[in-house]
Inverse folding.
């Protein structure tokens, strides 16, 4: 995966743990070269500088990581993240487990947020197409990760996996640091037997949300292990019949 930040970030973390900061620094820098908005790599560089005793540079890198994270948070509405008590089965069934908007008065919501809230309510009642009828016009004026995650959730509910995959990939493109988007993309790829791609998406989700803020890490870990196992079985020829759909 020479064009993915994931291997370089993981290698950098291993070098950090094994007290090889120069090698760690090189890999974090490669990750940033591929994606200049990958906050975790900046945080990794901060750890490298800390290990090397350069507190000033460490502070600069940590601040950069925080700024990227803050910018991401400010562009997303907080009520769309996947709650930690949700399950993979609920997602695969298309159910919307997003918490209701806390105490925010309706009059303070923007027109976009009101429409998104309306669509989520329809999704929770399994009115997939009605929800899509609300969501799709919003794409003409707004391009947010949460919007495309919501679109993908409805296509998943209708088991239209290709459309769901396209929506989740768009969500990932808009915010490469969204653990929820990678998680949901992984579930769709698992459904169509693209197990290697699913495993990579699950692993990326786990790396992006190491505290389990937006995903249930235990469930995602189980799904990642299961996807990796299926991918190995296919590669070794244990599974002769492949019913998946290939995506570029």
């Amino acid at each position: 995966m020479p064009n993915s930040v994931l291997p370089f970030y993981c290698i950098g973390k291993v070098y950090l743990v094994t007290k090889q900061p120069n090698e760690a620094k090189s890999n974090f820098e490669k990750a940033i070269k591929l994606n200049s908005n990958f906050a975790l790599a900046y945080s990794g560089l901060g750890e490298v500088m800390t290990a090397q005793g350069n507190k000033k540079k460490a502070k600069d890198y940590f601040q950069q990581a925080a700024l990227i994270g803050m910018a991401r948070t400010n562009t997303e509405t907080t009520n769309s993240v996947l709650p930690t008590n949700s399950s993979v089965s609920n997602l695969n069934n298309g159910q919307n487990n997003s918490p209701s908007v806390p105490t925010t008065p309706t009059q303070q919501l923007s027109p976009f947020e009101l429409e998104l809230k309306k669509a989520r309510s329809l999704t929770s009642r399994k009115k997939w197409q009605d929800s899509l009828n609300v969501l799709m016009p919003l794409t003409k004026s707004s391009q947010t990760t949460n919007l495309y995650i919501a679109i993908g959730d409805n296509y998943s509910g209708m088991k239209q996996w290709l459309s769901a995959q396209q929506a989740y990939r768009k969500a990932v493109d808009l915010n490469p640091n969204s653990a929820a988007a990678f998680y949901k993309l992984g579930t769709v790829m698992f459904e169509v037997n693209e197990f290697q791609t699913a495993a990579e998406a699950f692993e990326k989700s786990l790396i992006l949300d190491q505290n389990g803020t937006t995903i249930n890490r235990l469930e995602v870990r189980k799904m990642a292990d299961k996807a990796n196992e299926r991918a190995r079985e296919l590669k070794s020829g244990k599974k002769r019949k492949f019913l998946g759909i290939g995506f570029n």
